[in-house]
Amino acid sequence: MTGMLEFVVRVVGVLVAFLVAPLLVGQAEHKVMAHMQSRLGPMYAGGFHGWAQLVADGVKFVQKESVVPAAADKRVFEWAPIVAILPYMAALAAIPLAPGLVGAELDSGLFFVLAVMSIGVLGSLMAGWGSGNKYSLLGGLRVAAQLMSYELPFVLSAASVAVAAGSLSLTGIAHAWNPWWLLWQLPGLVVFFIAGLAELQRPPFDMPVADSEVIFGPYTEYTGLRFAMFLLAEYAGIVVLAALTTVLFLGGWSGPGPESIGWIWTVLKVAFVSVVVIWVRVSFPRMRADQLQKLAWQGLVPVALIQLALTGIGVVVF
């Protein structure tokens, strides 16, 4: 009975975190972008600082009709938002906040999280293919090209940390982390973060959804709650990327004070990385297709390979 109760508590905790954290990131994006771009933005919904803006957006999406185009593959079209969002909930369950404070403790947690994050991109591919729209199809093809380019440096940079820690367990990696890793694994951190933005199709890597070229890419035909699910999947992806960056490269719960407050440090670091993601969106223009591919294959992949090799040498020698 005790084991069953613990399982229920863990599931409920992950579900609550999955429902709350992406909404907080969405709200932060509204406000941070408004301040960085010197505009008021939606500051009136609910009163103080427009705190209810996301609630108003949710009501708006609920009221809109969910239309399925006549030329669409109905089953693929309807399943795409679900495929896009659920993998991030599974990934969040395996990322620890503190020792023992994790939804599912896995010996190969890093492998699991990287695998399910890749599944989330399939939702965008399904949306592009299933919409029966040429602009959506072009957006889907751009997603596929971007995924093929940035998946390799993303995995290689994460593998470098796993080699340094001697473990594929996210908890084990966080325990093995040392402050000097901030310098030793810094190139891997930069590669991992940039590749993660590309995996999430976040600016400046938003070529698949470029409104000036392909309207809104794979999501052109989506309305109502289905469209809202894609937005929620994007914010959930930011949370997972920020949490994974925190555990792999920033020490997870490591920080001043007793280990009992380690979860607070994890949350603060995740919040910081999320704000950096928003800052990058505001600060850099969209990359062209040739620039995007050149950065991946001539920039990130060689750096990730060199970092992995140096990590291996460092582990063997020191």
UniProtKB/TrEMBL annotation:
CC annotations in GO: plasma membrane
Enzyme Commission number, as recorded: 7.1.1.-
Catalytic activity line of the entry: a quinone + NADH + 5 H(+)(in) = a quinol + NAD(+) + 4 H(+)(out)
GO biological process: one example: aerobic respiration
Pfam families per record: NADHdh
Compartments where located: Cell membrane; Membrane
Keywords for the protein's UniProt record, in alphabetical order: Cell membrane, Membrane, NAD, Quinone, Translocase, Transmembrane, Transmembrane helix, Ubiquinone
Enzyme kind, highest EC tier: translocase
Residues annotated as transmembrane: 7-26, 79-98, 110-131, 152-174, 180-198, 227-250, 262-284, 296-317
Record GO terms (molecular function): NADH dehydrogenase activity; oxidoreductase activity, acting on NAD(P)H, quinone or similar compound as acceptor; quinone binding
Lineage: superkingdom: Bacteria
Membrane topology, as annotated: Multi-pass membrane protein
InterPro entries: NADH_UbQ_OxRdtase_su1/FPO (IPR001694)
Described purpose of this protein according to its UniProt entry: NDH-1 shuttles electrons from NADH, via FMN and iron-sulfur (Fe-S) centers, to quinones in the respiratory chain. The immediate electron acceptor for the enzyme in this species is believed to be ubiquinone. Couples the redox reaction to proton translocation (for every two electrons transferred, four hydrogen ions are translocated across the cytoplasmic membrane), and thus conserves the redox energy in a proton gradient. This subunit may bind ubiquinone.
UniProt record similarity statement: Belongs to the complex I subunit 1 family.
HAMAP family from the UniProt entry: NDH1_NuoH
Subunit record text: NDH-1 is composed of 14 different subunits. Subunits NuoA, H, J, K, L, M, N constitute the membrane sector of the complex.
Protein name: NADH-quinone oxidoreductase subunit H
Native source species: Kribbella speibonae
Annotated gene: nuoH
